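During the reporting period, our protein records have gained a structure token line. A sample record is set out beneath this paragraph:
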Amino acid sequence: MANLNLVQAINLALIQEMEKDDRVILLGEDIGLNGGVFRVTDGLQKRFGERRVVDTPLAESGIIGTSIGLAMAGLRPVPEIQFDGFLGPAYDQICSHAARMRTRTRGAYTVPLTIRVPVGGGIHAPELHSDSPEAIYSHTPGLKVVMPSSPYDAKGLLVSAIRDPDPVIFFEPKRVYRAFREEVPEDEYTIPIGKARVVCEGTELTLISWGASVIQCMESVEKSSKSIELIDLRTIYPLDLDTIEASVKKTGRCVVVHEAPFTCGVGAEIAAQVMERCFLHLEAPVQRVTGFDTIMPYYKLELNYLPDAARIAGAIDDAAAY
């Protein structure tokens, strides 16, 4: 076991997969010589060479378009988009091509592509550096969308993503990069895409989250006198609806937490699925604690935008008192 933070866990996963499979190559802006803006790929170009860790021009559409071609040709590219807001220029390549290629070619071609993206706010970054666009991509058939909340999960999920025959967007919450460490096996292991983690079991309320917001949810659970079952989705699409359904049928109450905007967020889909599957078991309406329907504010107000333990506790109390 190694005591690693999220950055180190992802770095280790990349090293092990690149050593195991010479089809795995990395592409991205400043990922080679500089090791990436967050130093996630630090040391990899020196270890594997410039042909497998490629410093690209500042051209997100070109990075993803090239990666799609490489994947269709038999490689397993892992491009990095430097910040979440920079996915926009690559949207057409991701959603019109990577996501559709299996269907377009009737299975003749697949796109085993893993797009790594630092995501979310809380680090006082400028505009276009703090978005949470997971709902956009989870609404695109043909894509898998993953967002770990811990170093252990990040390593196991990234390995699964790289080995997946279809495109995966692998969102890495920036607030968690160096927030804490945990024991991570140095040996190879995988975590299946599409399987949530029950962080702690409870009987009175189901609390659902993913990414960095899981940490604030854990704080709320620790401070609450109620018996709360906390679920970390880990995968945004496909959703582990079986785990959600079983939990809500047991507790009768549900709160969903995410830092993306309120309207049309993933929390709305979860609320709808809970209503359809668990209606006769619900004791209260599903509560949502989210970011606001506005662009992520600058430094002074940034932490007011993000769901915190106090806002989550308020939603828990409202659901319990209904």
